[in-house]
Amino acid sequence: MKLTKKLITVALMMSAAAMTFAQSQSVQKKSSSSNKETYVENEYLNDIDTEIIMGLAEADDLDTKLVALQYIKDAIDEGNTSAGVIEALDKLAGEGVLSESRTNGRKVNNFPEVRRQACLLMAQVPTEHTKNQLINIMVAEDEPSVLSAAVQSISKINPENADEVIDAICFINKRNMVLNPTSSLAFEVIDAFERLSPNASNHKAMTNTLTQIASNYRYNTTVRNRAQQLLKKLSSAGSSSKNSDAK
Protein backbone atom coordinates (compact mmCIF):
# COMPACT_ATOMS: atom_id res chain seq x y z
CA MET A 1 0.00 0.00 0.00
CA LYS A 2 2.79 2.38 0.97
CA LEU A 3 4.68 1.49 -2.21
CA THR A 4 1.61 2.26 -4.31
CA LYS A 5 1.24 5.67 -2.67
CA LYS A 6 4.90 6.39 -3.33
CA LEU A 7 4.54 5.42 -6.99
CA ILE A 8 1.48 7.65 -7.35
CA THR A 9 3.34 10.57 -5.74
CA VAL A 10 6.35 10.10 -8.05
CA ALA A 11 4.06 9.90 -11.09
CA LEU A 12 2.32 13.13 -10.11
CA MET A 13 5.66 14.87 -9.59
CA MET A 14 6.93 13.71 -12.99
CA SER A 15 3.71 14.86 -14.63
CA ALA A 16 3.99 18.31 -13.01
CA ALA A 17 7.62 18.58 -14.08
CA ALA A 18 6.71 17.66 -17.64
CA MET A 19 3.99 20.30 -17.73
CA THR A 20 6.38 22.94 -16.33
CA PHE A 21 9.02 22.03 -18.93
CA ALA A 22 6.45 22.19 -21.73
CA GLN A 23 5.28 25.62 -20.57
CA SER A 24 8.88 26.80 -20.33
CA GLN A 25 9.62 25.60 -23.85
CA SER A 26 6.48 27.31 -25.10
CA VAL A 27 7.52 30.59 -23.46
CA GLN A 28 11.04 30.27 -24.89
CA LYS A 29 9.69 29.62 -28.39
CA LYS A 30 7.35 32.61 -28.12
CA SER A 31 10.22 34.79 -26.81
CA SER A 32 12.54 33.59 -29.57
CA SER A 33 9.88 34.19 -32.18
CA SER A 34 9.18 37.65 -30.75
CA ASN A 35 12.88 38.55 -30.73
CA LYS A 36 13.24 37.37 -34.32
CA GLU A 37 10.23 39.42 -35.41
CA THR A 38 11.60 42.51 -33.61
CA TYR A 39 15.01 42.06 -35.26
CA VAL A 40 13.48 41.70 -38.73
CA GLU A 41 11.26 44.72 -38.14
CA ASN A 42 14.22 46.84 -36.97
CA GLU A 43 16.28 45.77 -39.99
CA TYR A 44 13.40 46.69 -42.28
CA LEU A 45 13.00 50.11 -40.66
CA ASN A 46 16.76 50.69 -40.86
CA ASP A 47 16.66 49.90 -44.57
CA ILE A 48 13.81 52.37 -45.06
CA ASP A 49 15.75 55.04 -43.11
CA THR A 50 18.84 54.40 -45.23
CA GLU A 51 16.89 54.77 -48.49
CA ILE A 52 15.38 58.06 -47.31
CA ILE A 53 18.76 59.37 -46.13
CA MET A 54 20.54 58.46 -49.37
CA GLY A 55 17.77 60.09 -51.42
CA LEU A 56 18.01 63.30 -49.41
CA ALA A 57 21.83 63.33 -49.44
CA GLU A 58 21.91 63.05 -53.22
CA ALA A 59 19.62 66.07 -53.70
CA ASP A 60 21.09 69.15 -55.37
CA ASP A 61 19.95 71.88 -52.97
CA LEU A 62 21.37 72.96 -49.63
CA ASP A 63 18.15 72.72 -47.59
CA THR A 64 17.52 69.09 -48.52
CA LYS A 65 21.08 68.12 -47.63
CA LEU A 66 20.65 69.77 -44.22
CA VAL A 67 17.50 67.70 -43.72
CA ALA A 68 19.53 64.60 -44.64
CA LEU A 69 22.01 65.47 -41.90
CA GLN A 70 19.18 65.64 -39.35
CA TYR A 71 17.96 62.22 -40.48
CA ILE A 72 21.50 60.87 -40.15
CA LYS A 73 21.82 62.31 -36.63
CA ASP A 74 18.52 60.70 -35.61
CA ALA A 75 19.57 57.37 -37.14
CA ILE A 76 22.91 57.37 -35.31
CA ASP A 77 21.21 58.34 -32.02
CA GLU A 78 18.94 55.31 -32.47
CA GLY A 79 21.91 53.02 -33.07
CA ASN A 80 21.64 52.77 -36.85
CA THR A 81 25.21 52.98 -38.16
CA SER A 82 24.63 50.82 -41.22
CA ALA A 83 26.88 51.00 -44.27
CA GLY A 84 24.27 53.11 -46.06
CA VAL A 85 24.11 55.71 -43.29
CA ILE A 86 27.92 55.96 -43.16
CA GLU A 87 28.07 56.23 -46.95
CA ALA A 88 25.63 59.15 -46.89
CA LEU A 89 27.59 60.83 -44.09
CA ASP A 90 30.85 60.41 -46.05
CA LYS A 91 29.20 61.92 -49.12
CA LEU A 92 27.94 64.98 -47.26
CA ALA A 93 31.24 65.51 -45.41
CA GLY A 94 33.08 65.61 -48.73
CA GLU A 95 30.40 67.47 -50.67
CA GLY A 96 32.11 69.95 -52.99
CA VAL A 97 35.61 68.91 -51.91
CA LEU A 98 36.06 65.17 -52.37
CA SER A 99 33.24 65.12 -54.94
CA GLU A 100 32.41 68.03 -57.24
CA SER A 101 29.45 68.85 -59.46
CA ARG A 102 29.92 71.54 -62.10
CA THR A 103 27.62 73.38 -64.48
CA ASN A 104 29.30 75.36 -67.26
CA GLY A 105 32.57 74.98 -65.40
CA ARG A 106 31.16 76.41 -62.16
CA LYS A 107 31.07 74.31 -59.00
CA VAL A 108 27.45 74.01 -57.87
CA ASN A 109 27.77 71.79 -54.78
CA ASN A 110 30.07 73.84 -52.59
CA PHE A 111 28.19 73.69 -49.25
CA PRO A 112 30.63 74.40 -46.37
CA GLU A 113 27.87 74.27 -43.74
CA VAL A 114 26.88 70.77 -44.89
CA ARG A 115 30.48 69.62 -44.67
CA ARG A 116 30.91 71.23 -41.24
CA GLN A 117 27.86 69.54 -39.74
CA ALA A 118 28.75 66.20 -41.32
CA CYS A 119 32.28 66.37 -39.90
CA LEU A 120 30.88 67.04 -36.43
CA LEU A 121 28.57 64.01 -36.72
CA MET A 122 31.53 61.81 -37.61
CA ALA A 123 32.72 62.01 -33.99
CA GLN A 124 29.71 59.81 -33.13
CA VAL A 125 30.97 57.03 -35.40
CA PRO A 126 34.47 56.36 -33.97
CA THR A 127 35.95 53.92 -36.49
CA GLU A 128 39.18 53.61 -38.45
CA HIS A 129 37.21 54.39 -41.61
CA THR A 130 35.87 57.63 -40.13
CA LYS A 131 39.35 58.66 -38.99
CA ASN A 132 40.75 58.13 -42.49
CA GLN A 133 37.82 59.97 -44.08
CA LEU A 134 38.37 62.97 -41.80
CA ILE A 135 42.06 63.04 -42.71
CA ASN A 136 41.12 63.01 -46.41
CA ILE A 137 38.72 65.90 -45.86
CA MET A 138 41.30 67.90 -43.88
CA VAL A 139 43.85 67.56 -46.66
CA ALA A 140 41.37 68.68 -49.36
CA GLU A 141 39.47 71.32 -47.36
CA ASP A 142 40.26 75.05 -47.21
CA GLU A 143 37.28 76.41 -45.24
CA PRO A 144 38.40 77.15 -41.64
CA SER A 145 34.97 76.34 -40.16
CA VAL A 146 34.96 72.89 -41.78
CA LEU A 147 38.56 72.25 -40.81
CA SER A 148 37.76 73.22 -37.21
CA ALA A 149 34.92 70.68 -37.14
CA ALA A 150 37.11 67.97 -38.68
CA VAL A 151 39.94 68.61 -36.19
CA GLN A 152 37.50 68.51 -33.30
CA SER A 153 35.93 65.24 -34.42
CA ILE A 154 39.13 63.40 -35.28
CA SER A 155 40.56 64.17 -31.86
CA LYS A 156 37.42 62.81 -30.17
CA ILE A 157 37.58 59.53 -32.07
CA ASN A 158 40.66 58.80 -29.95
CA PRO A 159 42.40 56.29 -32.23
CA GLU A 160 45.08 54.01 -30.88
CA ASN A 161 47.65 55.73 -33.08
CA ALA A 162 47.30 59.29 -31.76
CA ASP A 163 50.60 60.31 -33.38
CA GLU A 164 49.15 59.81 -36.87
CA VAL A 165 46.25 62.13 -36.09
CA ILE A 166 48.56 64.70 -34.48
CA ASP A 167 50.79 64.72 -37.57
CA ALA A 168 47.75 65.35 -39.80
CA ILE A 169 46.56 68.21 -37.58
CA CYS A 170 50.05 69.76 -37.54
CA PHE A 171 50.18 69.61 -41.34
CA ILE A 172 46.78 71.29 -41.69
CA ASN A 173 47.61 74.00 -39.19
CA LYS A 174 50.95 74.77 -40.86
CA ARG A 175 49.30 75.10 -44.26
CA ASN A 176 46.54 77.36 -42.99
CA MET A 177 48.92 79.41 -40.89
CA VAL A 178 50.51 80.51 -44.16
CA LEU A 179 47.41 80.79 -46.34
CA ASN A 180 44.66 81.84 -43.95
CA PRO A 181 45.52 82.01 -40.23
CA THR A 182 42.24 81.76 -38.30
CA SER A 183 41.95 81.95 -34.52
CA SER A 184 38.96 79.59 -34.42
CA LEU A 185 40.92 76.84 -36.18
CA ALA A 186 43.99 77.43 -34.02
CA PHE A 187 41.78 77.13 -30.93
CA GLU A 188 40.47 73.73 -32.10
CA VAL A 189 44.03 72.59 -32.83
CA ILE A 190 45.09 73.43 -29.27
CA ASP A 191 41.99 71.73 -27.86
CA ALA A 192 42.67 68.63 -29.98
CA PHE A 193 46.30 68.45 -28.81
CA GLU A 194 45.20 68.60 -25.19
CA ARG A 195 42.76 65.76 -25.82
CA LEU A 196 45.27 63.61 -27.71
CA SER A 197 48.41 64.24 -25.67
CA PRO A 198 47.83 61.45 -23.11
CA ASN A 199 47.98 58.88 -25.96
CA ALA A 200 50.87 60.51 -27.84
CA SER A 201 54.35 58.98 -27.74
CA ASN A 202 56.08 61.94 -29.38
CA HIS A 203 55.20 65.46 -28.23
CA LYS A 204 57.70 67.21 -30.50
CA ALA A 205 55.27 67.90 -33.34
CA MET A 206 52.67 69.29 -30.93
CA THR A 207 55.28 71.46 -29.19
CA ASN A 208 56.48 72.94 -32.49
CA THR A 209 52.93 73.76 -33.61
CA LEU A 210 51.96 75.25 -30.25
CA THR A 211 55.09 77.41 -30.27
CA GLN A 212 54.19 78.71 -33.73
CA ILE A 213 50.65 79.56 -32.59
CA ALA A 214 51.81 81.20 -29.36
CA SER A 215 54.24 83.46 -31.21
CA ASN A 216 51.99 84.38 -34.15
CA TYR A 217 50.30 87.73 -33.52
CA ARG A 218 47.79 87.14 -36.30
CA TYR A 219 45.97 84.98 -33.76
CA ASN A 220 44.06 86.67 -30.98
CA THR A 221 45.46 86.98 -27.47
CA THR A 222 43.18 84.32 -25.98
CA VAL A 223 44.38 81.69 -28.47
CA ARG A 224 48.07 82.58 -28.03
CA ASN A 225 47.76 82.45 -24.23
CA ARG A 226 46.03 79.07 -24.40
CA ALA A 227 48.83 77.73 -26.59
CA GLN A 228 51.37 78.91 -24.01
CA GLN A 229 49.42 77.26 -21.19
CA LEU A 230 49.35 73.92 -22.99
CA LEU A 231 53.07 74.21 -23.74
CA LYS A 232 53.75 74.62 -20.02
CA LYS A 233 51.46 71.69 -19.22
CA LEU A 234 53.21 69.42 -21.72
CA SER A 235 56.62 70.57 -20.48
CA SER A 236 55.66 69.79 -16.86
CA ALA A 237 54.29 66.38 -17.86
CA GLY A 238 57.51 65.62 -19.74
CA SER A 239 59.66 66.63 -16.77
CA SER A 240 57.60 64.49 -14.40
CA SER A 241 57.92 61.51 -16.75
CA LYS A 242 61.71 61.89 -16.96
CA ASN A 243 62.03 62.14 -13.18
CA SER A 244 59.88 59.04 -12.77
CA ASP A 245 62.02 57.10 -15.26
CA ALA A 246 65.20 58.22 -13.49
CA LYS A 247 63.96 56.78 -10.21
Q: How would you characterize the overall build of this protein?
A:
The structure is a single chain. The chain is mainly α. The protein is built from ten helices and two strands, in the order αααββααααααα. Strands 1-2 form a two-stranded antiparallel ribbon. β1 (102-103) and β2 form a beta hairpin. α6 packs antiparallel against α7. Mean pLDDT is 82; it is low at 1-14 and 30-34.
Range of helix content: over 70%
Q: Stretches where pLDDT falls below 50 for ≥5 residues?
A: 1-14, 30-34
Number of strands: 2
Question: Helical segment tally?
Answer: 10
Indicate the radius of gyration in whole angstroms. 28 Å
Straight-line N-to-C gap: 86 Å
Which labels suit this protein?
247 residues, mainly alpha, two-stranded antiparallel sheet, 2 strands, 77% helix, disordered N terminus
Q: Which helices and strands, and how do they pair?
A:
Layout: H1 2-57, H2 62-77, H3 83-93, E1 102-103, E2 106-107, H4 112-121, H5 128-140, H6 144-157, H7 162-179, H8 183-196, H9 204-214, H10 221-246
Antiparallel strand pairs: 1-2
Helix pairs in contact: 1-2, 1-3, 2-3, 2-4, 3-4, 4-6, 5-6, 5-7, 6-7, 6-8, 7-8, 7-9, 8-10, 9-10
How would you briefly describe this protein structure?
The chain has 247 residues and is mostly helical. 77% of the residues lie in helices and 2% in strands. Strand 1 and strand 2 form a beta hairpin.
